């Protein structure tokens, strides 16, 4: 028996109001406003209801989760004692765990009035992820692939309004355990809004949940706050960004050795750079030493100045 040819039924396309109305000929097609990425409006996440929900999340399950995964040790909090008003916290970046760890480590009065500069192409890729990022960590979208005026204006407006900012000037997580060169976003905002920059170094999160890891591996971590930096007169954003990077590198040296030795190397201009040595991947991995290896949860080590 001969098979009958397949028949394709073409259903009529539903019209208005089930679909967008057609644009008449002779009229320009209106620009459709994007609701994700850098265009996502996070204003609702700073209203009282959302802020109270974030406070409960931060001081409840997020703090417990950070303690269980990272067992954080915090140092340098006394360096913030004389500061007031909004601040820009500029930290190195190794893991998605960095933001929750820092949000539970930054002391009052900044902890619950702070926003996190997050990559627009990652944390605001769709409306569900964008809403979760804005609610849980107070994220705001920042373009990291190009200079985007709206991102700078959004962050500047929040700083002027009294909000602090947590930013990762490297622009992304480390892929090999070493840092990446700082971009000028934090320095530019500090110059534009006359807000001090607090350098912060995070150690250990790359081992716990580094880039490419499928699941976290509990370990220990350390957060070190540095002295607040202010741009000098007629100092450019690029030069100030270099000073911020040097300050974070000095904190990394302090965390790896001790305060006194790190201060001596900083005074001599011998602080090891965040970006690590140049060369092949095996050499860079070798230079990391035991910092890439597993870390046990031992008792905190007290480092005394070496005379």
Keywords:
7 strands, 307 residues, disordered C terminus, 35% helix, Glycerol-3-phosphate (1)-acyltransferase, alpha/beta, seven-stranded mixed beta sheet
Q: In a nutshell, what does this entry contain?
A:
It is built from ten helices and seven strands.
3D architecture notes:
- The structure is a single chain.
- This protein has a seven-stranded mixed beta sheet with strand order 1-7-6-2-5-3-4.
- The chain is an alpha/beta fold and 307 residues long.
- Helix 6 (185-193) crosses helix 8 (237-256).
- The chain has one domain (37-275): 3-Layer(aba) Sandwich (Glycerol-3-phosphate (1)-acyltransferase), CATH 3.40.1130.
- The model is unreliable at 290-307 (pLDDT under 50).
- It has helices at 48-70, 98-103, 120-123, 127-137, 149-160, 185-193, 205-209, 237-256, 259-268, 281-288, and strands spanning 72-75, 88-91, 114-119, 139-142, 164-167, 197-203, 221-225.
- It starts with 47 loop residues before the first helix and ends in a 19-residue tail after the last helix.
């Amino acid at each position: 028996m001969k098979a009958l040819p397949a028949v394709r039924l073409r259903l009529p396309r539903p019209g208005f109001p089930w679909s967008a109305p057609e644009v008449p000929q002779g009229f320009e097609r209106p620009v459709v406003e994007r609701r994700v990425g850098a265009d996502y409006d996070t204003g609702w996440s700073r209203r009282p209801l959302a802020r109270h929900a974030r406070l409960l999340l931060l001081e409840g399950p997020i703090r417990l989760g950070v303690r269980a995964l990272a067992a954080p040790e915090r140092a340098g909090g006394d360096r913030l004692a004389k500061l007031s008003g909004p601040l820009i916290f500029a930290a190195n970046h190794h893991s998605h765990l960095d933001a929750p760890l820092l949000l539970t480590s930054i002391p009052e009065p900044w902890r619950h009035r702070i926003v996190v500069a997050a990559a627009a192409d990652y944390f605001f890729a769709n409306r569900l992820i964008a809403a979760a990022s804005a609610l849980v960590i107070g994220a705001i979208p920042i373009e990291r692939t190009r200079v985007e005026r709206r991102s700078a204006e959004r962050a500047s407006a929040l700083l002027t309004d009294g909000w602090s900012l947590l930013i990762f000037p490297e622009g992304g997580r480390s892929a090999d355990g070493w840092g990446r060169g700082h971009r000028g976003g934090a320095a530019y905002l500090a110059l534009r809004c006359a807000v001090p920059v607090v350098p912060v170094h995070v150690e250990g999160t790359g081992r716990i949940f580094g880039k490419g890891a499928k699941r976290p591996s509990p370990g220990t971590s350390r957060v070190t706050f540095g002295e607040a930096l202010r741009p000098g007169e007629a100092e450019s954003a690029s030069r100030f960004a270099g000073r911020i990077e040097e300050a974070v590198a000095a904190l990394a040296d302090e965390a790896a050795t001790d305060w006194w030795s790190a201060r001596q190397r900083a005074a001599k201009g011998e602080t090891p750079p965040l970006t690590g040595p140049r060369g092949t991947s095996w050499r860079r991995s070798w230079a990391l030493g035991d910092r890439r290896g597993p870390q046990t949860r031992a008792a905190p080590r007290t480092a005394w100045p070496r005379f």
